[in-house]
Automatic annotation (TrEMBL):
The keyword Cytoplasm does not apply. GO terms for molecular function: DNA binding. Residues 43-164 form the Core-binding (CB) domain. Residues 120-328 form the Tyr recombinase domain. Keywords: DNA recombination, DNA-binding. GO terms for biological process: DNA integration; DNA recombination. Pfam families: Phage_integrase (PF00589). This is Tyrosine recombinase xerC.
Length: 338
């Protein structure tokens, strides 16, 4: 009966256009909940949800957003079971003398109260920190070349990669999946040549949906110069001319997000920068620094692929100098006649 329920739920989700990458983890979660409850779905009660949620918080120490997602998946499964259109209630009543009930409600699930629930310590780089970081990455190339040791190409690749993350405000995975052909011309910015725009094909997807695409316009000339030099003079030295990836390994594979993490942490720790700085902090820095430079907020929102301005606002951590300048501009009309 339980397996038949899962098959029916899968068919329902398939009919809504959801992909296996979304459905499979949901099924695994339901099986884990079954194992935790030690009862079948037609025996589940709200108390099972209470105990399971408490274990996620107190024992596994999962983030609120993760717990909410898990609770939501169990809610979806049980709502499918109690929907009279699918007949599971009468079937269970006839077979077992009991029927499934709703086990997730407003008093035992986490509400979504705010847009951002990440680590409050997360922040962008200051301009000085970012300059130190990028300079250190460049220094590693010079050191590798001078010592004639293996790794100079990889060091050059990674130094350029971090500049691209900042120069186009990218996420780590978006960066990893870039191909050489993703750069293109922008007729409104001919000075950037074939690097006037970047087609991001693997943007962050909504749950159950394919990756979202966006075009990011080039705005930093020094970043364009860096990637142009890499593509034309360094990337070919890796070999593998038929491989489409922008960031390629010395063995001919695509550079993975985990490798970006490893290199970032090595450089950050070597500089004794705060542990709170992560690869995503570079993207935050892009938003913050453009805001401080007076770039239109709507333009920045489009560049980073945010649907809502509130998401862009979360990324923005402007400096005290910027806030003081903004305050002075806001107060100037009031004090004009004083």
């Amino acid at each position: 009966m339980f397996d038949a329920m899962l098959r029916g739920w899968r068919a329902q989700q398939k009919s809504r256009g959801l992909k296996d990458e979304t459905i499979d983890p949901r099924e695994r979660l339901v099986r884990r909940f079954l194992e935790f409850a030690n009862d079948y779905p037609w025996q589940w009660t709200p108390a099972h949800m209470d105990e399971w949620s408490a274990s996620l918080t107190g024992e596994k120490h999962l983030a609120p957003s993760t717990i909410r997602s898990y609770q939501g998946d169990i809610r979806l499964f049980t709502e499918f079971l109690i929907d009279g259109r699918y007949g599971w209630g009468p079937a269970c009543e006839e077979a077992f003398g009991v029927h499934p009930v709703a086990i997730a409600h407003e008093w035992n699930t986490l509400p979504h109260l705010q847009d951002y629930e990440g680590d409050p310590e997360a922040r962008p780089f200051t301009r000085e920190e970012l300059q130190r970081f990028l300079d250190y990455a460049d220094d590693q190339v010079a050191r590798a070349v001078k010592s004639k040791r293996k790794g100079a190409l990889a060091a050059y690749r990674d130094a350029t990669l971090f500049k691209v993350i900042y120069g186009w405000g990218l996420r780590r995975t978006e960066t990893s999946k870039l191909d050489v052909v993703d750069f293109g011309r922008n007729p409104k910015a001919r000075q950037f040549g074939r690097y006037g725009t970047l087609n991001v094909r693997y943007g962050k997807a909504k749950k159950g949906q394919p990756p979202r695409r966006r075009n990011v316009l080039s705005v930093m000339d020094w970043a364009v110069e860096a990637v142009e030099d890499y593509v034309e003079n360094v990337r070919p030295r890796f070999g593998f001319p038929d491989h489409p990836a922008l960031w390629i390994t010395e063995r001919g594979g695509r550079l993975q997000p985990s490798s970006i993490n490893d290199r970032f942490e090595a450089y950050r720790d070597a500089l004794n920068l705060p542990k709170e700085l992560v690869p995503h902090s570079i993207r935050h820095s892009y938003v913050t620094h453009l805001t401080e430079d007076g770039v239109d907020r709507r333009f920045i929102q489009q560049q980073v692929g945010h649907e809502c301005d509130s998401s862009t606002a979360i990324y923005t951590h402007v400096s005290d100098d910027f806030m003081n300048t903004a305050l002075s501009k806001a107060l100037a009309p009031a004090f004009a006649g004083v």
